[in-house]
UniProtKB/TrEMBL annotation, chain A:
Cell compartment(s), UniProt: Periplasm
Protein name in the entry: Tol-Pal system protein TolB
Highest classification ranks of the organism: Bacteria, Pseudomonadati, Pseudomonadota, Alphaproteobacteria, Rhodobacterales
Major localisation: periplasm
SUPFAM superfamilies, per database record: TolB, N-terminal domain, Tricorn protease N-terminal domain
Residues annotated as transmembrane: none
Oligomer and partners: The Tol-Pal system is composed of five core proteins: the inner membrane proteins TolA, TolQ and TolR, the periplasmic protein TolB and the outer membrane protein Pal. They form a network linking the inner and outer membranes and the peptidoglycan layer.
Biological process annotations from GO: cell division; protein import
One GO cellular component term: periplasmic space
TrEMBL record, chain B:
Domain of life: Bacteria
Organism: Octadecabacter ascidiaceicola
Name of the protein described by the UniProt record: Gram-negative bacterial tonB protein
UniProtKB/TrEMBL annotation, chain C:
Membrane-topology annotation of the record: Lipid-anchor
Signal peptide stretch: 1-22
Name of the protein in question: Peptidoglycan-associated lipoprotein
Function noted in UniProt: Part of the Tol-Pal system, which plays a role in outer membrane invagination during cell division and is important for maintaining outer membrane integrity.
Length: 445, 132, 178
């Protein structure tokens, strides 16, 4: 599964000797010129000898940190850890010369070495990354220091650095998820807000289950969470401060119910749905001035708004055409452009943090899918399919999507899943109970 | 598997769309190029393209020298005409790894035609990262 | 919430009796029974006078005898003929028992996204509210709330359950609509 997902495919054009302008080397013979049209998408094999304990008593933490780094990389589906039993040699110590031939022989492409030192409540983690086939270090070694209770975050930071150096893209491991933790049977489900690391570790509950809570949404800096709560008996939007866990109800435009909130990138504005007289429209509230702006005004259901990263546009769903479809409008309202035209119903659109794609939930022929499309609606791709998948959220680097999945029937349960934007590497995210409505926070500092 | 197939077709489409204007050139000497095709396939099997992006596909041109026993000379591998485009450096690294990995212990090449494959230039595809 | 649980028990009992007659779960029967119940109750009440569900001024009478809920077709908020008949009974009861206020809960089945279903439940609750107002009730006595797909009554993933979950339930209480 993790090895060659595919071998060469679609071999189209063939290679050719041609007359070219490149200066021929030494002999007067022209170089052989070839063009590859394909390659493989396979997990990159890496070796990660357990990090060295630099100080006596650091052994357990060194082992734990090594394990979490490897889990992060393996979990992407892009990397494959080589079992330590295959190692021919291990580095004599952190910073010792590397016997690259030993690592080439077991086909490792990347080698990660490191050292851990625990001193009281402080821990430092050092690592170096090597490109085995070039026999050179990739980037400079780095050191992270902090308190021992932050050891998982330090592990994630190492893994983010490795990921970033090899793929050329930002990582996403040192990030958190806020979601709705679910317990109890389907007809008596208790819901409460929970926050956890991206990999399901360190779950903490932010509310009790005395009132229904729905669809928490991180601010761009991760300091606040918007969510819908039935505390008052009616759906209303709350703002929760992550550090203090203090919460207060958002003063929206006047309406019977308010839900489906999201922050603007700068955290100063909130867009949401407001229900008045049974009709649902989209509004915007400026948090500093309290000024409310109505952005849609039709008898249709207009909900699930999401800002583009530059703040200039809003994607949302509306059934103004008769079925749920996706529309893009200016952040100030105005006539929207419909962007979804396939079969079925489209909902819960979310703009990618890169700005290039929109993720959505699609319902077609009794199945639910998570999909992505370009922001003009072209190049739709469905990434998942199940009885009920919904509510996508983007990893901070825009490469991975997390969503909620519910199984069928009286014993149906909820869980969080993640999938690569190519549709590969579908994984269940480990949570203590059921989960729904994830919101992926930013890469932490 | 249906999803995987969809990914492959999207990816293939991406490659074609981004590089569709390139011309297929024939062998001016009319030589048998089966060995060259085979050589290309050997390298392609080691080219790890990594994660597909939405930035499309671009190519890096890489030149290198071969030894008479059909092994790549590691010191000779170089990037031709660098553009500094995003992802180019990673694309070159992936290309170099492919050349070295699949050259072990050696490539299957007609040793008697050494002069024809002594100097090699290959265009390798890579996925262009989307700029922030 | 108390009313809600009681109502659930009543529906359960009706379903059970349908099953004993039919040997298997027959959803059509269950729906008909509740509709019939709503239509036929006036003939069976006043003569007993035992209080509870048989006391026409009791909340139990409202929820069980008149019927506190109406059902909807897939992805619609249009009242059915049976639904309007139930609401006529509700309007009459509320007109007589003027101390009571009502909150209409709108619900949807699980076949839909959370946000859309919340909006759809609001449409359904509002359809009931508008109907009751058209029958002469003061708008100030009736509020609406939508639960979307958050509070299913029936848990199977089949149309027989979905039909019961696509509902608007009128919850009555004495006091202030805040």
């Amino acid at each position: 599964m993790m090895t060659k997902l595919m071998t060469a495919f679609a071999a189209t054009m063939i290679a050719l000797v041609s007359l070219g302008t490149v200066v021929a080397p030494a002999q007067a013979q022209e170089p052989l010129r070839l063009t590859l049209r394909d390659g493989v998408i396979e997990a990159l094999p890496f070796a990660l000898p357990s990090f060295e304990a630099e100080v006596a008593g650091s052994e357990q933490m060194a082992a734990d940190i090594s394990r979490v780094i490897a889990e992060d990389l393996n979990g992407t589906g892009l990397f494959r850890q080589i079992q330590s039993s295959a190692f021919i040699s291990t580095p004599a110590g952190f910073g010792s010369p590397i016997e690259f031939s030993d690592w080439r022989a077991i086909n490792a492409q990347a080698l990660i070495t490191g050292a851990v030192a625990v001193n009281g409540s402080q821990v430092t983690v050092k690592f170096r990354l090597y490109d085995v086939f070039s026999g050179a270090e990739m980037g400079e070694g780095l050191q992270f220091a902090g308190t021992t209770d932050g050891w998982r975050r330090m592990s994630h930071k190492v893994a983010d650095a490795v990921y970033s150096r090899i793929t050329g893209e930002a990582g996403y491991f040192d990030s958190r998820i806020v979601y709705v933790a679910e317990t109890g049977p389907k007809d008596d489900r208790a819901k409460r807000l929970a926050i956890m690391d991206y990999d399901g570790a360190n779950v903490q509950y932010l509310t009790d289950s005395s009132a229904i809570v729905l669809a928490p949404r991180f601010s761009a800096t991760g300091d606040r969470v918007l969510y819908t709560s039935y505390e008052s008996g009616f759906p209303r939007i709350n703002v929760l401060d992550v550090a203090t866990v203090g919460r207060q109800q958002l003063t929206t435009a006047p309406g019977d119910m308010a839900f489906s909130p999201r922050f603007s990138l700068d955290g100063r504005q909130v867009i949401y749905s407001l229900i008045n007289g049974g009709n649902t429209d989209i509004y915007r509230t400026d948090l500093a001035t309290g000024q409310n702006t109505r952005l849609t005004n039709t008898p249709a259901i207009e909900t699930a708004p999401s800002f583009s990263p530059d703040g200039s546009q809003i994607v949302f769903e509306s059934d103004r055409s008769g079925t749920q479809q996706l529309y893009v409008m200016s952040a100030n309202g105005g006539e929207p452009q419909r962007i979804s035209f396939g079969n079925g119903r489209y909902g819960t659109p979310v703009w990618s943090p890169r700005g290039d794609l929109i993720a959505f939930t699609k319902q077609e022929a009794g199945r639910f899918h998570i999909g992505v499309m370009r922001t003009d609606g072209t190049e739709e791709r469905l990434l998942t399919s199940s009885f009920l998948d919904e509510g996508p959220t983007w990893a901070p680097n825009g490469r991975v999507i997390m969503f909620g999945r519910e199984t069928q029937g009286a014993d149906g349960t909820t869980a969080l899943y993640s999938v690569d934007i190519t549709g590969r590497n579908l994984r269940r995210v480990s949570t203590p109970q059921g989960g729904s409505d994830p919101s992926w926070g930013p890469l932490q500092r | 598997m249906r999803v995987l197939a969809a990914v492959l077709s999207v990816w293939a489409a991406g490659v074609a769309a981004d590089h569709g204007t390139e011309e297929v050139m024939g062998d001016p000497n009319g030589a048998n190029i089966a060995w060259a095709e085979n050589f290309k396939a050997q390298i392609a099997s080691c080219l790890n393209l990594g994660q597909q992006t939405n930035g499309g596909v671009a190519f890096v041109s890489v030149s290198f020298e071969m030894t008479p026993n059909a092994r790549p000379a590691e010191y000779s591998i170089q990037l031709l005409n660098p553009t500094g485009r995003a992802g180019e450096a990673e694309g070159f690294e992936a290309a170099r790894r492919a050349i070295l990995r699949c050259g072990q212990p050696s490539y299957a090449l007609p040793l008697d035609l050494f002069s024809q494959w002594r100097h090699v230039e290959i265009s390798f595809p890579y996925f262009v990262p989307v700029s922030e | 919430m108390k009313h809600f649980i009681k109502a659930a028990l009543v529906i359960g009992a009706l379903t059970l009796s349908a099953c004993t007659n039919a040997d298997r779960f027959d959803n059509a029967d269950a729906v008909d029974l509740s509709a019939q119940n709503a239509l036929n109750t006036p003939t069976t009440i006043d003569q007993t006078g035992l209080g509870g569900a048989n006391d026409p001024s009791s909340p139990q009478f409202f929820s069980q005898t008149i019927g506190d809920r109406v059902l909807f077709e897939v992805d619609t908020s249009t009242l059915t003929a049976a639904g309007r008949a139930t609401l006529d009974g509700q309007a009459g009861w509320l007109a007589t028992n003027s101390d009571y206020l009502a909150v209409i809960e709108g619900h949807a089945d699980e076949q839909g996204t959370r946000e859309y279903n919340l909006a759809l439940g609001a449409r359904r609750a509002n359809a009931v509210r508008e109907y009751l107002i058209s029958k002469g009730l003061a708008a100030s006595r009736i509020r609406t709330v939508s639960y979307g797909k958050e509070r299913p009554l029936e848990v199977c993933s089949a149309e027989s359950c979905y039909a019961q979950n696509r509902r608007a339930v009128t919850i009555i209480s004495i006091g202030q609509n805040s």
